[in-house]
Amino acid sequence: MTYDEKAQTVTGHVFPGAITWTGATEAIDRLKVPRVRYQDGPQGFRMNIHWSTSTAWPSGLAFGTSWDPELVEQWGESMGKEFLDKGAGVQLGPAMNVQRVPYCGRNFEYISGEDPQLGAKLVGPLIKGIQSNGIMANMKHYVNNNQETHRMSQSANVDDRTLHEMYYPPFKAAIEAGVASAMCSYNKINHIPSCGNNQTLNYHLRDQMGFKGFMMSDWGAVYGPPKDYIPNGLDQEQGSVIPHFTKKSLKNLPQEQLDNAVYNIVYNFIKIGLYEEELPDNYKKNVTSQAH
């Protein structure tokens, strides 16, 4: 890849107003690298327009209360098929944070409920079901994104033992199931931004838990230059209207750090099969079925 192509790979594409697709990577025509589209969400293909053309599934929390790994895997397989049929290469889910604050506005998304071991039992089958369609699952929101109040600025202050015993088990199980990507969260962890946190991203996630996928930011969760993020474990910025990862700012990185981020992204897209050919943009297509 040229420098410009590498810079393009670590910077996500924002659709104006996110009216259709949540995000994407740009095609690299010279290398016959196709565009890959990303879409919300954890419990089904999100429709902003063309209503009722994807299934309104029960929430992740509802499936968590089933205590049924086989049912959850069927859900993942069926849900992933709708993403594939719409043309999404990446499903931005599952969501697996342990519920810590009872009135958190996104508790309904999280399959773990209040129990990290329940989450750990269910996320593996769910991810296998999604990725059986030849698309990429995305584990989120890593990590300690347990409240919505002041989510862009609050710091979750957590010791290592609590992280490993209470908050990491669902993510570790997702890694063991072969999840190909992850999304870091808006919040800080011990006063360091989640998407630039060397301890949680590099030391805990990659070195200790063995994560081999690529790490994307939540939409707008990068708050500074690449030198504060890519060396600390982030591979791709997503969703920033004014990106921090630019051709100019990325030149401040050592070449090997940029190459490592690009490798993590490209390797996993190739592994899943998303660089074989571009999925058709079938956003308007009705992908519901009686079975679903």
In a nutshell, what does this entry contain?
By secondary structure, this protein is α/β, with parallel strands linked by helices.
Folded structure, characterized:
It is a single chain. This protein is α/β, with parallel strands linked by helices and 292 residues long. 31% of the residues lie in helices and 10% in strands. The protein has helices at 3-9, 60-64, 69-86, 116-131, 160-167, 169-176, 198-208, 255-272, and strands spanning 23-25, 36-39, 90-91, 138-142, 155-156, 181-184, 188-189, 192-193, 214-217. Strands 1-2-3 form a three-stranded mixed beta sheet, with no helix packed on it. The mean pLDDT is 96.
Low-confidence stretches: none
Terminal Cα span: 42 Å
- The sequence of SSEs as H and E is HEEHHEHEEHHEEEHEH
Helix/strand class:
alpha/beta
Total count of helical runs of at least 4 residues = 8
CATH architecture: Alpha-Beta Barrel
Could you name the CATH class?
Answer: Alpha Beta
The helix fraction, in percent, is: 25-40%
Average pLDDT, rounded to a whole number, is: 96
Rg, Cα atoms, Å: 18 Å
Q: Biggest sheet: strands, sense, closure?
A: 3 strands, mixed
The CATH homologous superfamily corresponds to Glycoside hydrolase, family 3, N-terminal domain
Give the strand order of the largest sheet, numbering strands 1, 2, ... along the chain.
1-2-3
Number of strands: 9
How many domains? The number is 1
CATH topology: TIM Barrel
